[in-house]
Amino acid sequence: MLKIEKILSLNNKTFSYLFFLSLGVIVLFLLNLWYGSVLISAENVLKTLLGNTNNNSDSIIIINYRLPQAITALAIGMALGLSGLLLQTLFNNPLAGPSVLGISSGASFGVALVVLSGSITGINYLMPGLVFGNILIVASALIGAFAVLFLIIFISARIGNIVVVLIIGIMIGYAINALVGVLQFFSRSMELQEYVIWGLGSFSKTTLTQSVYLSLSILILIVFSFFFRNSLNVLLMGKNYAQSMGINTKRMQFSVLLIAGLLIALATAFTGPIAFLGLAIPHIARNLFNTSNHRVLLPAVIILGAFIALVCNFISKLPGYDTSLPINAVTSMIGAPIVIWAIIKRSKIRQS
Amino acid sequence: MKEVLKIKNLKTAYFVGKRNQRILHHLQNLAVYEGDLVSVLGLNGSGKSTLIRSLLGMQKSVESEIYFQNTNSRSININELAKLVSVVLTDKLEDNFLKVYEIVSLGRFPYGSSTGSLTELDKEKISMAMESMNITEFANRSFSQLSDGEKQRVLIARAIAQDTPLIILDEPAAFIDSPGKLSIMKMLKLISKSQNKSVLLTTHDIESALKFSDKIWLLSQDGSFQSGIPEEMINNDLINSFFDKDGITFNKEKLGFDID
Asked: What is the pLDDT of residue A351?
């Protein structure tokens, strides 16, 4: 009895890991404000953050460029990590991630329609500084992503079998990508290049106001996800067991899909599709904390997601000068080996 | 005696598409009493799992009037049902990180609890369940690293922690070696008697079912159905007429099968 009680309490190691990761997030956030193509002293970074922004060109760079970029990276890391975890548990599949439901393809289609239609209308929506164009891109991505999300949820409500929903999501993704391909075929090279660049993803497309609203929306979704911390654990045993323990699996499927889908839709609309983060972060969290318990994993993927996205953003800025690496190149180079490692480890455990 | 489960009228069926159905069994006025261990026997394809799934509402049946603790199953919501029946299924668990104690404590979910927010009562039920299945010593190990027999004991402990008057198990002894099969049946028998729980299980292991069960339900592939106390069924040649085939006969003295 005593022994079990000791085992059942969440251990201190979990808390200290979460604590140090949170510290890491704060440090990385400041590093991302400090480092960039223009040299800014740490003193000026802190001054700006404390509200002292008098006529300082450094402050303008920080407030208008680096701060929204860092906030966006932080929020997107959280959103993608969380959506990946929710989908992997819901589909009981280690390869589920933000891209499998076709939601990011839906966003891409919305953007492709607008950008590539520039070939016909002659308007260049992605021209730097064109605020109207920026909002139009975000709106079209959101509409495309929501359209696919509601299609998926509609299908999932009619078909109880979650594996079928997964396969249909992947198929919708393929079909939409084909449509995008057709649009690309009929486009001029200028618009095409702009669309391709959008598809490479970027944390620096948001204004400060946008990044704040984006973070707030993601924060609300995070709060909702915590209501499912116990039922997600039960769902690890499979649909039938979950039902036998009193869970209305159809309703839960709907809610979890909605939360994950909204997270993906928001993330893709503001930054373009970001590869691998959503897939890799839950795997790192499970291996680092050595658990599948969502009471640990939910905070873990959120903090770890922010941590890794900020690391990726920092790496993308390393070349210096006025270029930075496309964020997708960085996330893929970091994410792919991690997923490979996690899958190999998983199969090793099973064989032993 | 108290009826924990009463099947007043149940027609189990296979469904092929929406209209096409094949009735498997028609069960009427059948009960599982408090503290009884009932084994459902039948050959492959006789519809044992279909019966279990129909009872639990996991599968459609043609007609169904079932009572849990004298309440019609139609007027019990899914959460109340979770406090009346717990299950052990054949579904595979894919997760690599779940610990034994975490799985057992999931059994407390219907009472609003989970790991990390367990009440004293929850902890007591969990440790009692682990003791009764003899798994306390590997409480902190990963489920995926256990042997098939140990895994089954963990899943049964989870059902016990759910603290329901009835536990339904689908093939609890499949994929387990013979001594393991016997020990699982023995543990289930002990639980049914010492904790006054009713146990309904399906099995292919005729010998241990006859040895440990209070009642046997025989399902045949042609749709006929028989139930009774093991000794009576043996003495009335029911077991022989049911299972003897191709020179393999049931030996009443040994409670085992002979090969001619």
From this structure: 58
CB A273 within 8 A of CB A176: no
| pTM (2 d.p.) | 0.91
pLDDT of residue B126: 94
Q: Which of A124-128, B112-116, B242-246 is modeled with the greatest confidence?
A: B242-246
Nearest to A259 by CA among A99, A139, A149, A102: A149
Q: What share of chain B is helix, strand, coil (3-state, %, to 5)?
A: 35, 30, 35
Chain A nearest-CA distance from B231, in A, is 34
ipTM, interface predicted TM-score of the complex: 0.93
Helix (H, G, I), strand (E, B) or coil at A254: helix
Write the pLDDT tens digit of every residue in B23-61.
888 999 999 999 999 999 988 888 898 999 999 988 888
Residues of B in contact with A92 (CB under 8 A): 94
Tens digits of residue pLDDT in B124-137: 999 999 999 999 99
Please report, for the domain that includes residue A267, its CATH number.
Answer: 1.10.3470.10
Nearest C-alpha of chain B: how many angstroms from A5? 7
- Number of structural domains chain A divides into: 1
Q: Report if residue A7 sits inside a domain.
A: no
Indicate whether A47 belongs to any domain: yes
The average confidence (pLDDT) of chain A is: 87
DSSP state of B50: H
Best interface-test mutation with A: which of B56, B85, B95 has the largest number of A CBs within 10 A? B95
Establish if A133 belongs to a structural domain.
yes
Q: Could you give the CA distance from residue A317 to residue A32 in angstroms, rounded to a whole number?
A: 9
Range of the domain at A176: 25-351
Instruction: Enumerate the residues of chain B whose CB falls inside 8 A of the CB of residue A341.
Output: none
Residue A243 has its nearest CB partner, among B58, B80, B144, at B58
Take residue A271 and report the two structure tokens written for it. 């930054």
Whether residue A4 lies within 8 A of chain B, CB to CB, comes out as yes
Domains in chain B: ranges and CATH = 3-84+165-259 (3.40.50.300), 92-163 (no CATH)
For residue A100, tell me if it sits in a domain: yes
Q: Does A341 touch chain B (CB under 8 A)?
A: no
Give yes or no for A346 touching B (CB within 8 A). Answer: yes
